[in-house]
Design brief:
The complex is a heterodimer of chains A (255) and B (377). Chain A is of the alpha/beta class and 255 residues long. Chain A has helices at residues 44-51, 75-80, 98-105, 121-133, 149-161, 179-195, 207-214, 234-239, 241-247; strands at 5-14, 17-27, 33-37, 59-64, 68-69, 83-86, 167-171, 199-203, 219-224, 227-232. In chain A, the strands form two sheets. A six-stranded mixed beta sheet of chain A has the order 6-7-8-3-9-10, sandwiched between helices. Chain B has a domain at 22-278. The chains are: A alpha/beta (255), B mainly alpha (377).
């Protein structure tokens, strides 16, 4: 495998407005985390939408693991290929318990398989392990709707992890969290990098959080007006004149 | 804490057993001994048929959150299927002595229409009563759910279909008896319908079928499939991203609810003795929604209680205040939605929390299980 994700010349149009244009992005297989930043309206979430079958690009090519053409596939098929996404707002199933949320996320999603028992024992083990990883094991039998905002975000990350993803797309995972919760999330993401094999693509506005993650040597891609403006280490992009210009009027890039 | 543990609901089983003993065994025995009149047994048979219809509605609406306003069509498909069989069993013995049902003779139809022919055989009629509605639902579901038509649009569509079907069946050209429907059934499988023994047997079959359908539905909603169905109700988009083919599940549950409605019609027609277009249109479809809402949507007991209690009230009140009934029904619906959104079952659960002394008693009952407790792992 040469590339985990290969995006070439991607164009997304909303009734004539080009939300993405000529976007090129390559994720190497050994790359564990890629941070996506950029001012509002830069097209970060739209890129995730395009990768997960939410919007249909007018032009471009998206290859996953060199051979899977993601464009034109429906959401659940993309998920089956291992590209799993977390949305901006926590979207857990509020009327199901934490454990039930995990059962829904794990195991076979095949129609007939769901008639069998709720979860096989190896699934239960995996669920317990992932819940422990995100610190929710003690809350397993509580309704997900009663969790705090931060806990819901972690539950959602747990729901993604239990699916053994290849590429995890996280859209603003720490939005609305307290500082302490953000720090825990950093530790959680460190743990994922250590314990799981997946790669993560992460959108975030919180620059302190971005610096914390990127400080571990991960690459940052800056999007602006639907295309890649700059790419490299956090120090490199923050020193980039064009990036500073793009952020002008919206506050500085510094944390 | 054990992961995924929780009360398994032995009390629930106790109630189901009690329900089975009372309705499947005690009532017919009482009737055979002359303690319960044939009239009342027949009435209960009718209620239990309608409860079956409500259980199907609860699966699709209460658990999956899809409001189908066309359930009565499926009920009608079942009732007309068996009705046609019974008509043919009675024909030939009619006044005109022709091998076609009398109403066709009155409409100058002297040859049995082709689509009536399979209904000469009871096995085909019974199969048709469940498979035909399931197939119709699957086709409607296939055309709508895969195109992501949902929510209100689906409700309106099913209502439009109910109206269209009602219009079609009402016409004499359909050769289904027009607005008069099918009636004057003489026998089923050779057993005279006027005999109390036949009616008692039909009642027992109905009660046993309801019990079986209830257990099957209960198994379904507590399986992982049930988790998926309830997740569709709460956050359908999210489920798609988890990798579920949501449309497939929706088509499945719609077909199951339609088959249950057809089964309900199959049992209803021989006991009530008539099926007309007025029972398969828009209004009867809406009424099913009211039963389930009144009993408590999203709980199988709610569907059961709602259907039986409202229809019992209807029997009592239409006798005394026939004109007021629609108003009473509407008021009940509005009142329940406003004050007890979880219906009778939710009301009972609230009573339990208000009166701590009764807690154990009701809990042992389990009828009052709140939504969370209703789903033991």
């Amino acid at each position: 495998m040469d590339t985990l994700l290969y995006v070439e010349n991607l164009h997304v149009s909303f009734e004539g407005f080009l939300a993405l244009h000529n976007l090129n992005l390559i994720l190497e297989p050994q790359e564990r985390i890629r941070l996506l930043i950029g001012p509002n309206g830069a097209g970060k979430t739209t890129l995730f939408d395009a990768l997960t079958g939410q919007v249909e690009p007018v032009m471009g090519r998206v290859l996953f693991k060199d051979h899977v053409n993601l464009l034109g596939l429906s959401e659940h098929v993309i998920a089956h290929h291992g590209v799993i996404r977390k949305f901006q707002t926590p979207s857990v199933f509020p009327d199901h318990t934490v454990y039930e949320n995990m059962v829904l996320s794990s195991g076979s999603k095949h129609f007939l398989a769901s008639f069998a028992a709720r979860a096989a024992s190896h699934e239960q083990e995996q669920i317990a392990e992932v819940l422990e990883q995100v610190g929710l094991l003690d809350h397993a039998n509580e309704l997900a709707g009663t969790l705090s905002h931060g806990q819901k975000q972690w539950l959602e990350i747990a729901m993604l992890l239990v699916q053994s993803p290849t590429l995890l797309l996280l859209d603003e995972p720490v939005a609305g969290m307290t500082r302490a919760e953000k720090d825990r999330t950093v530790a959680l993401i460190d743990g994922i990098v250590k314990r799981s094999a997946c790669s993560i693509m992460l959108i975030e506005h919180d620059m302190q959080f971005v610096r914390q993650i990127a400080g571990r040597g991960h690459k940052v891609t800056v999007l602006h007006e639907g295309t890649v403006l700059s790419e490299g280490s956090i120090d490199h992009v923050q020193a980039d004149e064009r990036v500073i210009e793009a952020y002008l009027g919206r506050g500085k890039v510094s944390a | 804490m054990t992961l995924g543990g929780g009360p398994r609901g032995d009390a629930q089983r106790l109630w189901i057993a009690a329900f089975g003993i009372v309705f499947v065994v005690l009532l017919p025995v009482a009737n055979a001994l002359g303690l319960l009149s044939d009239y009342y047994l027949n009435l209960f048979g009718k209620y239990l048929c309608l409860a079956l219809l409500a259980v199907g509605m609860d699966l699709i609406w209460g658990y999956t959150g899809i409001l189908s306003l066309g359930q009565a069509i499926f009920f009608g498909a079942g009732a007309y299927s068996i009705g046609m069989n019974m008509m043919l069993e009675g024909s030939g013995k009619g006044v005109y002595g022709e091998p076609v049902p009398d109403f066709m003779i009155w409409n100058q139809v002297y040859q049995l229409p082709l689509f009536w022919k399979p209904y000469k055989y009871i096995a085909l009629a019974v199969a048709s009563s469940m498979l035909l509605p399931a197939a119709i639902a699957a086709v409607i579901g296939f055309l709508t759910f895969r195109r992501k038509l949902r929510g209100t649009y689906f409700a309106i569509l099913t209502q439009a279909i109910a109206f269209a079907v009602w219009l079609m069946v009402s016409r004499n050209e359909m050769k289904l008896g027009g607005t008069n429907g099918l009636t004057d059934f003489k026998s089923v499988l050779g057993f005279s319908l006027s005999s109390p023994a036949t009616q008692r047997a039909l009642y027992i079959i109905t009660a046993a079928t309801l019990l079986a359908a209830f257990l099957l539905s209960r198994w379904l909603v507590t399986s992982k499939t049930g988790l998926v169905l309830q997740a569709i109700r709460d956050n359908e988009r999210r489920l798609e991203f988890l990798g579920y083919n949501v449309a497939g599940y929706k088509i499945f549950v719609f077909a199951v609810s339609a088959a249950l409605a057809g089964l309900s019609g199959l049992l209803y027609a021989p006991q009530v003795g008539i099926i007309t277009p007025s029972q398969i249109g828009v209004l009867p479809s809406l009424e099913i929604v009211i039963w389930v809402a009144f009993g408590g949507r999203g709980t199988l007991w709610g569907a059961l209680l709602g259907a039986i209690s409202i229809n019992w009230m209807r029997s009592v009140l239409t006798g005394t205040y026939p004109r007021l009934w629609p108003i009473i029904l509407g008021a009940l619906f509005v009142g329940v939605i406003m004050f007890f959104p979880k219906g009778l079952v939710g009301f009972a659960a609230r009573l339990r929390s208000v009166v701590p002394g009764r807690r154990r008693l009701v809990e042992a009952g389990g009828v009052a299980a709140s939504k969370a407790e209703e789903r033991p792992l």
